[in-house]
Amino acid sequence: MEGSIRNLEQGLQQDTHNVSILWQLARSYAEIGNGNTATALMEQLYTDKPADPEIERELFVSLCLAGNYQKAIQLLPLSRETGEVLFYEAILRRDTGDTKRAITALRKSLSMENFRPIAWLFLGELLAGSAPEEAETCFRTAIRQDPELHVALFPLGKVLLTQNRYKEAYEFLSRAHRYFPQQDAIIRDLNEVLRKMPEPAREQESPPVQRIIAANPPKVRALNSLAQGMPLVRIGLAEEQTSITVKTGGPYILRLPGERPLFTGKGPEQLWAEMRNGKLFLLDHAKKTLIIAAEPVALEYQDPENTTLLSGFTLEDRSYRGSIEFRPEKAGITLINILNIEEYLYGVIPAEMPAYWPTEALKAQAIAARSYTLACLGDYNRDVPKEKGFDLYGSVLSAAYRGVNGEARATTAAVDATRGMYLTAGGKPLKAYYSANHGGYSEDSRSVWGMSTFNAAVPDKLLSSRANPLPLDELARWIRERPRSYASMPDLHSSQAYRWEKWVAAEEIRSRNAADGNNIGEILQVISRGRGISGRINEVEIRGAQGTLRIKGDRIRSRLGGLRSNLFTIRSKLGKNGKPEYFIFQGAGWGHGVGLDQSGAAGMAKAGFTAAQILGHYYPLAALR
Length: 625
Fold this sequence. Notes:
Layout: H1 2-14, H2 19-31, H3 35-48, H4 53-66, H5 69-75, H6 83-95, H7 99-112, H8 117-127, H9 132-145, H10 153-162, H11 166-179, H12 184-196, E1 232-241, E2 243-248, E3 252-255, E4 261-265, E5 270-276, E6 279-283, E7 289-293, E8 297-300, E9 308-311, E10 318-320, E11 323-329, E12 332-340, H13 341-352, H14 359-377, E13 392-393, H15 409-417, E14 423-425, E15 428-429, E16 434-435, H16 445-449, H17 472-481, E17 499-505, H18 506-515, E18 523-528, E19 539-544, E20 547-552, H19 555-559, E21 568-574, E22 580-588, E23 596-597, H20 598-606, H21 611-618, E24 623-624
Parallel strand pairs: 1-13, 16-23
Antiparallel strand pairs: 1-12, 2-5, 2-9, 3-4, 3-8, 5-6, 6-7, 8-11, 9-10, 11-12, 14-15, 14-24, 17-22, 18-19, 19-20, 21-22
Helix pairs in contact: 1-2, 2-3, 2-17, 3-4, 4-5, 4-6, 6-7, 7-8, 8-9, 9-10, 10-11, 11-12, 13-14, 13-15, 14-15, 14-20, 14-21
């Protein structure tokens, strides 16, 4: 960034009114948190082109973010009154003490652009003293729109406390304290709740071992003999569990893997698996011990149509095909589902892609997921350490998987229609990555993870390819302008997947990194360090009052406040002390952005492309087998 800025400044010395250089310099200074210099450059642009509404808007936003409100007020009213402009006017009014006009501007802004979590937070803060019930609605809306907006938890807890709703106040204040443990104001309000309600009513679920399940796991149509020759996969459903509740779907067998049965039982029957003193205990419905083992124990059925219902490790009870392995480890039970790859995909595809989406998109997803799964089975391409005893995680760490509960007729049909089909590259199954939405351009795996996986960067089918990454000002404009693409088709993508904006408090970034052992003090700058062809950031540098931290790859999203992707630009909102109060990330896409774009695939399928054509577009270096 610094080298880029030096080159641009040299160019500006030779051509002081070059619009392109001025735009790029302004955006670059904004990216590194130097809002005053960015604003000065925008003022120069505005002097040269006062009738350009985009320059006028950008100057107004820059002035508001830098806290230069006197000059910002002089620009009002802007030639184009949008929800964004009204939002920044509200910030201006709020920070200059004009609460009434700030509230009016926020309400008008939200009537034009309802999805703006930070605006709901600010409106709630302004209303908290005079209209606590309305403020509560605002805070809850902000959290519903952005569950990662943790700074809304404290004011919500506080406004509930003023209404003497102690149980709810305790819940949100406790959550706020979890994310901001050093904030004295949160601790004071928590103590006030405890004084007024010494033992807050907190619902506690009974331990899973005490729970009785009335429902029976369903029977399913099994592939049975067709499963012969299909690879078996081992899916890690949970780790470090002290107790698991089990409901068998029919007559069952308990055995050490590969050995004769240790116990046979009738079903449906409820069982419990527990860890005691480093040993695995399996108990029957009467709590009688059936097996004590130091080795893995498998629960199997002779009838492949039977399933097993498991409870205690997810929010919902889930049933699974195949067999279940209870693997005792020092930290607790590892729970593994063993089944053939096709029946595994029955539970993956509807968890990864809505079953009502076009058939050809479902088929493309099935082939991509099968390819990814096959690639993870060998020792050469594992994501899961071999010592864990399973091939893939039963979560988005590998692929979303909900077992029988998530199966749907359309996605099962897509798996059956593509049975055995997969992608290859380099003579092996392709590790075919996919994500919810690539925002208009996917990224090469080398840029995201530093390794080649034959997953190349490609633009959306409706957009142009690039020879080089876009300059920062053009990237910011590309994100703002929301170009039409197959990834942005109505009803085929989440409203905040293709384009999004997220405000993250500087204190939250400090707290997130401190919780991971990197306390670098008050956050002063967040700087991008390198971008891929799509614009995704390879690395960020976080500068604090007490040190500097570098973060790469997927960790960037979580460390900066739960961002949807690494494809974003950075700006900062200065507080009254002249230091960053919020960092503003304007971005595109949801997920890592490598491989198949699920929304884009659905858009292509709706437009008439086949599964093979969709896969050929997103995986140009692979062949379909």
